[in-house]
Automatic annotation (TrEMBL):
Any single GO BP term: response to other organism
Catalysed reactions, semicolon-separated: L-threonyl-[protein] + ATP = O-phospho-L-threonyl-[protein] + ADP + H(+); L-seryl-[protein] + ATP = O-phospho-L-seryl-[protein] + ADP + H(+)
Keywords per UniProt: Receptor, Signal
Protein name as it appears in the record: non-specific serine/threonine protein kinase
Domain Bulb-type lectin: 26-167
Signal sequence residues: 1-23
Location relative to the cell: Membrane
GO molecular function terms listed in the Swiss-Prot or TrEMBL record: protein serine/threonine kinase activity
Length: 344
């Protein structure tokens, strides 16, 4: 606890002090160099920081990731992180966290042979994460740089236009200004786990409908308990389309985030997360599939009409259909792991 407190105090002083930022931080990590403890990379504009921090002080667990720190009034905002084991390896373990949490003083983030990697002493110095870019022909020329838009890249030291890897191609749950969404595939993910339930969501977009998105929500890691629904980004959101991607304008002051419950939202970067838009306003269910055990309690949700029904059933089968007005699509989730609202 004492070590965690010292770490947080040191991080807080550096985040709040421009002098500390300019005197001790760099935006680049060269071969053989490493980050550990409270050492960080800082983008040249001072807006983004790569290193260990925590979501809610006082800190007991630390996450290694990219943080938006360009605010004197808001706490650091996590915008990219190394996911937990169950997300990286596809293993459903409800005791794991969404993000990989480690001891900053016993963990090392380094660039070795053109490969970014995170190792941890408590895990026998095993590689906990890797960019998987290690190649002999780039090992000596590669450098990792945290750009002003929050994109962490591995690029050539001489020709900065030659990129070997970038975090914008490996999205977590957040899309930053200047970032992009590729069509036809999983683009963003988010997950939440506790002792009773596991909930995850992923987002993809349709190449034929630029501003249309589809979200898959998965409860308890069951292939039979998945929900698909679609929505559309609002017209005022500053997206631009190229041949392959939907680009969020680099001049935008908002970011897009996918929550574990499947909600997609847009908020202001410099507004301490002030909400500007939520997919709850426009989504529609495409399909759902649920298999519940006889002892499960069911909570029924209506997305289209925002009408909420509740049911506690033992041994009941999901109804084939329900008519309220024209038609209401209903989503079934387990009572204990429904994050959307609390049912007494």
């Amino acid at each position: 606890m004492e070590k965690a407190c010292k770490f947080f105090i040191a991080m807080f002083i550096c985040i709040m002090s421009p002098r500390c930022k300019s005197a001790h931080a760099t935006d680049a990590l060269f071969p053989g160099q490493a980050l550990s403890g409270n050492k960080t990379l800082l983008s040249k504009n001072g807006a983004f920081q790569l290193g260990f921090n925590c979501l809610s002080p006082p800190c007991s667990e630390f996450i290694f990731g990219i943080w938006y720190v360009n605010s004197s009034t808001c706490k650091p905002l996590l915008v990219w992180a190394i996911p937990g084991m169950e997300l990286r390896f596809g293993v459903c373990d409800i005791n794991k966290n969404t993000y990989l949490t480690l001891d900053p003083w016993k963990s090392t983030f380094s660039l070795s042979y053109g490969n970014l990697q995170l190792t941890s002493l408590p895990y026998n110095s095993n590689i906990m994460w890797s960019s998987a870019t290690g190649m002999k022909d780039i090992s000596s020329s590669a450098v990792a740089v945290l750009l002003d838009n929050g994109n962490l890249v591995i690029r050539d030291q001489v020709n900065s236009s030659v990129l070997f890897w970038q975090s914008f191609d490996n999205l977590g749950d957040t899309l930053l200004p200047g970032g992009w969404l590729r069509p036809n595939g999983q683009l963003m993910y988010s997950a939440k786990s506790n002792v009773s339930a596991s909930i995850s969501s992923s987002l993809s977009r349709n190449a034929n409908q630029p501003k249309e998105f589809t979200i898959l929500r998965n409860v308890d890691c069951s292939t039979a308990n998945r929900i698909h629904y679609s929505g559309t980004f609002p017209s005022w959101m500053d997206f631009h389309e190229d041949e392959y991607s939907l680009l969020l304008s680099s001049n935008s002051d908002l970011y897009v985030r996918l929550d574990s419950d499947g909600t997609l939202s847009a908020a202001k970067l410099e507004g301490c997360g002030t909400l500007l838009w939520s997919s709850l306003d426009s989504w529609q269910e495409i399909s759902y599939s649920v298999q519940e055990k006889s002892h499960s309690k069911l909570v029924l949700f209506s997305i289209k009409s925002k009408l909420v029904l509740t049911a506690k059933a033992i041994g009941a089968q999901p109804p084939a259909s329900t008519s309220v007005d024209a038609h209401i699509d209903i989503i079934f989730t387990r009572f204990k792991c429904a994050p959307w609202r609390t049912i007494p």
